[in-house]
Amino acid sequence: MLVSPVPARPTDVDDIHALRRALEDWMADRGVDQWARGSLPRERVATQVDAGEWWVLRDDEGVAATIRLLWSDPDFWGDDPTPAVYVHGLMVARRRSGDGLGSALLDWAAARGRDAGVGLFRLDCRTSNPALRRYYESQGFTAVGERDFGTHRNTLLERPLRRGTIGFLHTADAHVPTFDALTVQEGLVAVHVVEPRLLDDVGRVGPDDADVRRGTQEAVDELARRGADVVVCTCSSLGPVADGLVTDVPVLRVDRPMARAAVASGRRVGVVATVGSTLGPTCDLVRDEAERSAGPGAATTVVPVLVDGAWDAFRSGDVARHASLVAAAVRDLAADVDVVVLAQASMHAARPLLDDLPVPVLTSPATGVAAAARLVDRAR
């Protein structure tokens, strides 16, 4: 979603202040520790509007959302001379909750920062408000410190503006920390969209279903709108869908670099999966990479294995049992193949249990992110 806020006018002061008071009441009623009732006087809003700091989005009912943009912020960040854009006063009217205006305004502010040539985007939240911190982290921000104000503490968060961004399409929340950590190692920023329903849908009706393709397309488009230079589809079941999308940014299925490495490692490739809808596409992907590397009829044999019960363990949160079941299946297979592929990103936790095997065991997260980082370099 692209938005175009306009500078607030003196006539907007009452609406901005009323929106702030309404959100203060909403937070107080729900026990959210962020803005106390009456903590932003109208006179201060008026002064800030006169200084050109406030920007507003309007709809048919008036001010729908606001953002306050600064180019220094000594009250929260001290005398830090690092060129940065700072945001306060990000507010969305409750009638527009769920419309994506908050994320869109953050993207707009990031674009203003890039246009101004600064390298960092900074904001903060109460340390006692973990839900807001998680929201900001989902937008690519990382906590870098705290500020003690005596009566409360604020967490300081920032997001680089000059480095590239990888967007990840997941079908499980559990993947977010793994890909966040790998992206940071590459010196890049991660943004995420999680759509569990897409995995259920593709398992039920297959990758050629129009609704599955439309939902995947919409998720990828959302990541592109949020600044992704490259999008990685981390769900192997959706891999065939990702391959066929027409988008403004490159889309990489996370398992393709792994499949390429597997074909280079041996003629007999074991493919281990925990979801039936993943097993077929991953086997097809390995065969496709074999043909690409050695031409049609390349002598690569794919040995598929579906691990019963492992996916149920993963979805129930029993990661240890999931990893144990996967590791046992790989050990049973290892003597018959040259290399083993763990078909889903969720299976990476089993990899450390298999270090003693004589054959390579490949997982998709690290190779996928490394390949995406190379695409980011080319895109920029």
Q: Classify the helix fraction into a percent range.
A: 40-55%
Number of helices: 14
The run of helices and strands is EHHEEHEHEHEEEHEHHEHEHEHEHHEEH
Q: Can you tell me the overall shape?
A: elongated
User: Which structural class should the secondary elements be placed in?
Assistant: alpha/beta
Task: Please outline what is shown here.
The chain is an alpha/beta fold and about 375 residues long.
Helix and strand arrangement:
Blueprint: E1 6-7, H1 13-30, H2 42-50, E2 54-59, E3 62-70, H3 74-77, E4 84-92, H4 101-116, E5 120-126, H5 130-138, E6 142-148, E7 153-160, E8 165-170, H6 175-185, E9 189-194, H7 196-205, H8 210-225, E10 230-233, H9 239-243, E11 251-253, H10 256-265, E12 268-273, H11 276-294, E13 301-306, H12 310-315, H13 319-334, E14 339-342, E15 361-362, H14 364-379
Parallel strand pairs: 4-5, 8-9, 8-10, 10-11, 12-13, 12-14, 14-15
Antiparallel strand pairs: 1-2, 2-3, 3-4, 5-7, 6-7
Helix pairs in contact: 1-2, 6-14, 7-8, 10-11
